[in-house]
Amino acid sequence: MNTLVVASTQADATAVEEIRARHTELAAALRARTDALFAAAGGATTDGTTAAQAARRELQEFTAAAVLPHLTRLAANTLAQAREHGGTRLLAQSLAGQQAGIVGAAQSLAHAPDPIAGVAAAGALTALTTAHLADVDDHLLPALAALPVVSLADLAAALAPATAGTGTAAPATADDASAATDPALAVGPDHAEPALAVEAATGHGHTCACGGTEVAEPELDARTVPHPIRHATVFGALDAVQPGASMILVAPHDPLPLLAQLEQRRPGAFDVIYVERAPQAWRLRFTRN
User: Looking at the record's lineage, which domain of life comes first (predicted)?
Assistant: First the structure.
């Protein structure tokens, strides 16, 4: 739900609506591609693997061409502007940390060693990106609108190239890369700028299993998934497990609540065996019936 923004000028009010519409379009396009990957990975047909590979490539290419360049422009313009004012500085830092998480999810998608890991990374990427754009719309834009010295119209114009047209963005440009290399615009504690991750997100130059032999028993380490989206990520990964196949889940604790939810969602769909019970890592094997 979008927060009401009281803008100082009609141009700024129009700019807020433009930015929010752009974010809604971007999030919907990302969700559609992620849903297509989930559907392809969960298919039982003999060519399901090929369909999943195509859906994953489509998602990776869209992430590199649309999502990450938009984050770069947000970092170089909107977040940079917010850092200059005491009332919005901490919010900008928090949003920058979110961007670092999105970049990490995009890299995990590009380098996922098997379809299960790819589905999990895609779910995390979509959830993190959607939440980030909503936070910008609902928290940052109203805060910036309250500052007379900030022109939201100028910020909207700076963001426009990222999602101009019909839902697909222009590829990252040299301007994107040069903006992101400025240390003042780093999007996280490790200075992992979105523009620098565009190539990594496409998977170019990296040898992974997206077109080769799949791992017989893939493993999903839920400890690396942000807590708010952990269960959803696990369910998405399990949906991609074919009948007779299995997946290892690594959890930070005994996942009894997750098992209860799984049984409600998919009664009798999986046999679950505890492989390891340890204080820091509980390992369970899920075999699809």
Answer: Bacteria
d(Cα 177, Cα 190) in Å, to the nearest integer? 17
pTM tops 0.70, yes or no: no
Give the separation between CA 168 and CA 172, rounded to whole angstroms: 12
CA dihedral 214, 192, 232, 256 (to 10 degrees): 90
Contact 15, 152 (CB under 8 A): yes
By C-alpha distance, which of 61, 34, 177, 200 is closest to 119?
A: 34
**Cα–Cα dist 251/260, whole Å:** 15
pLDDT category of residue 272 using cuts at 50, 70 and 90: very high
Using CB atoms within 10 A of its CB, is residue 123 exposed (0-12), middle (13-18) or buried (19+)? buried
Q: Which residues contact 173 (CB under 8 A, 6 or more apart)?
A: 69, 161
CB-based contact 12:145 (threshold 8 Å): yes
Q: What is the number of other CB atoms lying within 10 angstroms of the CB of residue 139?
A: 15
- Total of domains in the chain: 2
195's tokens:
């523009």
Q: How far is residue 74 CA from its own chain's centroid? A: 15
83 & 22 share domain: yes
Structural domain boundaries enclosing 27: 10-209
CATH number of the CATH domain containing 261? 3.40.50.150
Strand partners, 43: none
Nearest C-alpha neighbor of 177 from the set 192, 200, 196: 196
Instruction: Find where tokens 């290399």 sit.
Output: 181
Which of 189, 209, 229 is the C-terminal boundary of a domain? 209
- pLDDT at position 285 is 94
126 close to 30: Cβ distance less than 8 angstroms: yes
Our measurement of the distance from residue 90's CA atom to the centroid of its chain's CA atoms, rounded to an integer in Å, reads 22
pLDDT in tens, 142-159: 989 888 888 989 999 988
